[in-house]
């Protein structure tokens, strides 16, 4: 069984719900070292992406177009730094599965890795700089390594989720090299990076989606 456009519509709806549920927590994290609006920005962006994707004709829309619609909606809604970062990520995911009418497990994993690469390249960040890359890069690396060793997709993304959570938690001990929080120097130590925290939520949503999708395969 493959992942079709209607499945991706469910994925974006799931991400939007999970981010909305943690919006206030993300704002609290950002309030400690930033403007305090990261939760609002991510909530608005994910909701806009989910609505744009839901409006597509699933019978006429390929997965690439789903990711591109999400990218455009997110960018048009979020002016903060997360806007262009996630827009680039979704566009890279779309490019990774170009010309596919449905996605195999391997296709989906390539799209997932492209999300992480897009964010890292657009943000020009490396792990250890207290950004969302500290969650995305370890997650993609863990998923790709697990998949290469023959691990099923759902378990590979479970490992990605664990790596993202660990990467997010590790930002607590870092100083910031990017953004407003970089001006605070060592005062940011002891605080989790809000971008890494929201990334961990998105990655957990993706892992949950795949697990649910796999359970449907088994039930069928």
Helices and strands, with pairings:
Layout lengths: L4 H17 L1 H11 L4 H17 L8 H15 L4 H15 L8 H19 L9 H16 L4 H18 L23 H26 L1
Helix pairs in contact: 1-3, 1-9, 2-3, 2-9, 3-4, 4-5, 5-6, 6-7, 7-8, 7-9, 8-9
GO molecular function, one term: glycerone kinase activity
Pfam families: Dak2 (PF02734)
Keywords: Kinase, Plasmid, Transferase
Give the H and E element order: HHHHHHHHH
Total beta strand runs: 0
CATH architectural arrangement: Alpha Horseshoe
On the 0-100 scale, what is the average pLDDT?
92
List the uncertain runs.
Answer: none
Short summary:
By secondary structure, the chain is mainly α.
Describe the structure.
The protein is mainly α and 220 residues long. It is built from nine helices and no strands. The chain has helices at 5-21, 23-33, 38-54, 63-77, 82-96, 105-123, 133-148, 153-170, 194-219. The longest helix is centred in the last third of the chain and has 26 residues, at 194-219. It starts with a helix and ends with a helix. One of its GO terms (molecular function) is glycerone kinase activity. This is Probable dihydroxyacetone kinase, phosphatase domain protein. Pfam families: Dak2 (PF02734).
């Amino acid at each position: 069984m493959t992942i079709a456009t209607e499945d991706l519509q469910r994925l974006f709806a799931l991400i939007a719900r999970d981010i909305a549920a943690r919006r206030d927590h993300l704002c609290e994290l950002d309030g400690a070292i930033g403007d305090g609006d990261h939760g609002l920005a991510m909530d608005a962006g994910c909701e806009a992406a989910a609505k744009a994707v839901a409006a597509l004709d699933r019978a006429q829309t390929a997965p690439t177009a789903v990711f591109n619609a999400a990218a455009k909606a997110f960018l048009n809604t979020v002016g903060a730094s997360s806007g262009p970062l996630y827009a680039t990520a979704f566009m890279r995911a779309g490019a990774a599965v170009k010309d596919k009418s449905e996605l195999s497990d391997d296709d989906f994993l390539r799209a997932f890795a492209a999300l992480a690469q897009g964010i890292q390249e657009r943000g020009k960040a490396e792990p250890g700089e207290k950004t969302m890359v500290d969650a995305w890069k370890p997650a993609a690396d863990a998923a790709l390594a697990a998949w290469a060793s023959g691990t099923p997709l759902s378990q590979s993304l479970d490992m990605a989720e664990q790596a993202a959570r660990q990467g997010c938690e590790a930002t607590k001990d870092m100083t910031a090299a990017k953004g407003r929080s970089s001006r605070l120097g060592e005062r940011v130590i002891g605080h989790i990076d809000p971008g890494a925290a929201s990334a961990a939520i998105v990655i957990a949503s993706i892992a949950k989606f795949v697990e649910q999708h796999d359970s449907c395969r088994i039930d069928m």
